[in-house]
Design a protein that fits this description.
The structure is a homodimer of 111-residue chains. Helix content of chain A is 53%, strand content 7%. Chain A is mainly α and 111 residues long. Chain A has a single domain, classed as Winged helix-like DNA-binding domain superfamily/Winged helix DNA-binding domain (Arc Repressor Mutant, subunit A). In chain A, strand 1 and strand 2 form a beta hairpin. At the A-B interface, helix 1, helix 2, helix 5 and helix 6 of A face helix 1, helix 2, helix 5 and helix 6 of B. The structure holds a DNA duplex (30 and 30 nucleotides).
Chain lengths: 111, 111
DNA sequence: CGTATCGCTACAATAAATGTAGCAGTGAGA
DNA sequence: TCTCACTGCTACATTTATTGTAGCGATACG
């Protein structure tokens, strides 16, 4: 994993600006990160069901993303599997307008 | 880039679900995509200044992302350089809560 | 012509992601 | 206890994505 950052803020990658938004944008701009948060929106999932939900993504990368998301405080591992923390749920909440936007976008793109 | 999708909705990658949110999540979950939209927030930038704003990312990938974003209808090339379309500005607007969240997150992470 | 910039591309090197297989640990049922 | 199904998680070779450097043709200014 090569990164033992205590809370994922210091140097998430390509975001040496110190601005949290950069770190967040960078963290979210990795494959499957957004998707994982999205798939966890309705409740916790254990690793294999999460894998299925994520289009059978490889466990390697899923595990890596899950670790990053846990270090960032967005995801936690409970008895029910992986679930969003309160903070993670807040993050997901910011996706809601994105969801509505996506619907609008698909209509636009289709025309 | 092996993809000539007319409007970026059909098969953005790993999103054969048909749900627009998946396509959007996938498109945004590529390196520099979120960042580009973010950097264009205050106005158009020509390619090299955009490169500088994006931490000197390689022109190869920037060009690729720019093409994708243009096909998706989020970015356009004008006399002033690359700029967000009205649709792109709508997309950026959904990031605003994300920005506020990032600030809160950084405080959380720091503790 | 020389020298800028523009958008954009080629290409080799490196890093990230994929796909398949399998580990150790836990708990249930026979 | 043995087996079976599940949990989270990892190894490893292959493929794909990204990086970094260099440079293209076109346009504009002197």
């Amino acid at each position: 994993m090569a990164k033992q950052a205590p809370a994922a803020k210091p140097g998430v990658r390509g975001s040496r600006s110190g601005r949290p938004i950069m770190a967040l944008l960078d963290l979210l701009g990795r494959r499957w990160t957004l998707r994982i948060i999205w798939e966890l929106r309705e409740g916790a999932l254990t690793s294999r069901p999460l894998r299925s939900a994520c289009d059978e993504a490889s466990p390697t990368i899923l595990q890596a993303r899950l670790t990053e998301l846990r270090e960032a405080g967005f995801v936690e591992l409970t008895d029910d599997g992986y679930g969003l923390t309160p903070l993670g749920r807040e993050l997901f909440a910011t996706f809601t307008p994105l969801h509505r936007f996506a619907e609008r976008w698909s209509k636009h793109a289709g025309s």
